[in-house]
Design a protein that fits this description.
0% strand, 2 domains, rod-shaped, 84% helix
Length: 96
C-alpha cells in the first residue's frame, strides 16, 4: 500500500474560507484523501511489485536462453546431417 501526503487540515481550512461548514469540509477532505489513496494504490508499483516482476523476467530470460541454445544445437545438427547426406549423394552420383 502506498502512502500519500495530503494535508486535510489545510484543505478543510480552504473550504471553510470559501463558506463551507467545518463538518462538511472535514467530510469532503476525508473522502478526497481516501479517493487519492485508492488511485495511488491502483497505479503505483511498490518495491515488492518490482521485485516480483524482476524475478518473473529473469525466469523468462533463462527459459528463452535455453530455447535459443536448443535451436542452435538443432540447426547445427541438421546442417551436419544435411552435409553428410549431400556428400553421400554426390559420392553415389559420381562413382556410378
Amino acid at each position: 500500500m502506498s502512502t500519500i501526503t495530503f494535508d486535510t487540515l489545510k484543505f478543510v481550512e480552504r473550504l471553510e474560507k470559501a463558506g463551507m461548514s467545518r463538518e462538511h469540509a472535514a467530510a469532503l477532505a476525508e473522502a478526497q484523501k481516501d479517493s487519492l489513496s485508492e488511485v495511488m494504490d491502483a497505479q503505483l508499483a511498490t518495491k515488492g511489485d518490482l521485485a516480483k516482476m524482476e524475478s518473473t523476467l529473469q525466469k523468462e530470460i533463462q527459459r528463452l536462453d535455453y530455447e535459443i541454445r536448443l535451436v542452435r544445437w538443432m540447426v547445427g545438427l541438421s546442417l551436419a546431417l544435411s552435409t553428410g547426406i549431400l556428400a553421400l549423394l554426390a559420392k553415389l552420383a559420381f562413382t556410378s
